[in-house]
Specification:
Length: about 650
């Protein structure tokens, strides 16, 4: 199965899962089993499934055939090159290819001059007026190619302006952007490009990130802080004729490998093997040369040879367009596509499966527990009423008193529930006192002041280190509050289960580990790019401060924002089962008391009431069976493919 076919199958699975969860949500509403918390959680789950994206990043130095590889893998069906691909530099800025049905096909280009401001790319995406928009005529291949050439545009500026925008410009020999005879430097016109393109795979949620070479990666930190780390697959492209150059190695070590060369979805492509095709050599000799180059590249990058794929993107594209199966096999492109489809899609599917199982599983268990609680209450009523057959009014009066006493006992026990709510509220306030954005905002302001006032490099370095230290302490204190809340609710769940027979299970768990890991990652990036001896000695204090707050502190803030949202969701989830069961138990006790009262007032209604409750019991059992059918459909979709095939 090709990558395109595998991704189409994944999209169909995700769509089926979304439909099944939607049916479950609708079923809950039709059966009066939903509440505000359940509605919110299922709505958020459905939104995540609808907005699910598969991000694939292509990273390489210039002239490695990166754009040609994208054309060969994804766009060969168009019968020509969609992305510009020629000798020299073609992709001059990070380019995202995606499809947003809310917008027409077009290219959005962010001017390079925005790099001189305080805004990141993600922030500029909130301000469409800052982008230059070029319509994309998808009905004409030539018009589409012409539009896409804008991504490669350059402008000429004075060297000081180029350096201000982050480019290595000047007259020294190793300057990446040298000064021309006219005293100007040629730099990219655009900082970032977003291409909204209605390709079938993009419509299904594929997002392709095409990145320029080392110089642009180094000057656009958002690539290495957000876009590349969040990519589900990173294809690192080398040229077969050069192998691993020094700049290739720098990109790998600093931005891709980083101790995670074995991470799923990290693939090395050795492109342009057709340069080894020599009519004076045998196929065995050619294969031997390619194997040697693969072995050499794997050794330099610290990889297994199985992670390096030699291909010819150009020949693969030609073969697909012309329907030449022999040339396609010789290009070895199908081997790369098979590896991607076998590695990338299952990894992404596992993430979606785990997230859905976690959210849906908790909701379905709550609903099942609620139905079982109702059924138990109903059967208790039936047992009580059945025992009253043939009994005199004195026995009925006794039963009425017994239920009334049970109801009063439960309501007195509710004082403990209200006390728990009060303590829960206090602990919640403590949690958000540590995790909240007000404290982080204050820390950020203190750090900015300290960095701007720093007289020595060490003071600057210490301020950045202290920022991370105090951010971690805030997470640690928040973790302590979470542990206390979980322990308290666990004890309360058990007590109410024993004393009143409530079916509460165990409270939902929550961890801040992912945010602690995110702080570790951001601090590691900061230490290698900003808080290093070389950077502190060669970069102006104000520039370091500006970069720290534009590129690092802003991502710390986003991590805390996500942690706050997740904590709020968890707090609602941990209290909701308790509130639902207490309310349900009160209703059941009230119904039992009213039933016996009615029978006390008119004994001839006993059989009618028993028949009525037996009918309700039958309906409730059918409701539970119906729930199992809806839940089983989702659970079946959440099974690994092998297990689903065995069940089928």
């Amino acid at each position: 199965m090709t990558l395109a076919q595998q991704f189409a199958a994944y999209s169909e699975w995700r769509s089926s899962l979304s439909d099944a969860v939607g049916d479950f949500h609708q079923w809950l509403g039709q059966n009066d089993l939903s509440d505000a918390q359940t509605d919110l959680r299922l709505t958020q789950l459905l939104e995540r499934l609808r907005e699910d994206r598969l991000n694939v990043a292509f990273v390489a130095e210039f002239s490695r055939g990166k754009s040609e590889l994208i054309n060969a893998i994804f766009f060969a069906d168009y019968g020509t090159r969609v992305l510009p691909s020629s000798a020299g530099r073609t992709t001059m800025c990070p380019t995202e290819l995606l499809f947003d049905p809310e917008r027409p096909p077009r290219i959005e280009l962010l001017p390079i001059t925005t790099r001189g401001s305080n805004g990141s790319i993600s922030e500029y995406k909130r301000y469409p007026e800052e982008w230059t928009v070029i319509p994309l005529d998808v009905g004409s291949t030539e018009a589409m190619q012409e539009g896409l050439r804008h991504v490669s545009e350059m402008i000429r500026v004075v060297p000081d302006e180029a350096r201000r925008l982050g480019f290595d410009a000047g007259t020294h020999n190793d300057a990446f952007y040298p000064t021309g005879d006219d005293g100007l430097v040629e730099i990219p016109r655009w900082r970032h490009a977003v291409i909204n393109f209605p390709h079938p795979l993009l419509k299904q949620g594929l997002v392709i990130l095409d990145t320029p070479g080392l110089n642009a990666i180094g000057t656009e930190p958002e690539l290495t802080l957000s876009l590349l780390p969040n990519a589900h697959a990173v294809l690192f492209i080398l040229a077969a004729d050069t192998g691993v150059t020094q700049s290739d190695l720098s990109i790998w070590r600093d931005h891709i490998g980083d101790g995670g060369a074995a991470r799923r979805g990290r693939v090395v492509v050795l492109n342009k093997i057709d340069g080894q095709w020599d009519e004076l050599k045998s196929e065995a000799e050619i294969d031997s040369e390619i194997r040697r180059q693969v072995s050499s590249c794997a050794g330099v990058l610290g990889l297994s040879e199985r992670q390096v794929f030699p291909v010819s993107a150009q020949k693969g594209l030609v073969a697909k367009i012309n329907g030449d199966a022999v040339l396609l096999e010789r290009s070895r492109l199908p081997l790369l596509e098979a590896a991607l489809s076998g590695e990338l899609i299952p990894a992404k599917q596992d993430i979606v499966r785990d997230n859905t199982e976690s959210e849906f599983g908790e909701v379905s268990r709550r609903v099942r527990g609620l139905l079982e609680s109702r059924l138990a209450g109903l059967r208790e009523q039936l047992d009580e009423l059945t025992e009253l057959r043939g009994k005199n009014k004195g026995v009925v009066t006794y039963m009425m008193g017994k239920v009334r006493a049970e109801k009063e006992e439960f309501e007195s026990g509710l004082q403990r529930y209200y006390a728990v709510r009060s303590v829960f509220s206090t602990l919640t306030n403590n949690l958000f006192g540590h995790l909240g954005l007000d404290a982080l905002r204050e820390l950020t302001q203190e750090t900015r002041t300290a960095m701007l006032d720093a007289s020595f490099s060490k003071s600057l370095s210490d301020s950045m280190a202290l920022f991370f230290k105090r951010s971690r302490e805030a997470l640690a204190r928040s973790g302590g509050e979470i542990t206390e809340i979980t322990s308290m609710m666990d004890a309360v769940y058990k007590k109410f289960a024993v004393e009143h027979g409530l079916k509460l299970g165990s409270p939902a768990t929550f961890s801040l580990l992912r945010y602690e890991k995110e702080l570790d990652r951001l601090e590691a990036w900061c230490n290698s790019h900003l808080n290093s001896m070389r950077s502190l000695l060669t970069t102006d204090k104000h520039n370091i401060t500006q970069k720290f707050f534009e590129e690092v502190a802003v991502l710390v803030r986003r991590a805390f924002e996500r942690a706050n949202r997740d904590a709020e969701t968890w707090l609602r989830a941990i209290m909701a089962p308790m509130e639902t069961q207490v309310r349900e138990h009160q209703i059941q006790l009230k119904r039992r008391l009213e039933s016996i009262k009615r029978i006390h007032q008119a004994t001839d209604t006993l059989e009618d009431r028993i028949n009525e409750l037996e009918g309700v019991e039958k309906e409730m059992l059918e409701q539970i069976q119906s729930l199992e059918g809806v839940v089983d459909r989702i659970r079946d979709l959440l099974l690994p493919d092998e297990a689903r095939l065995r069940r089928a």
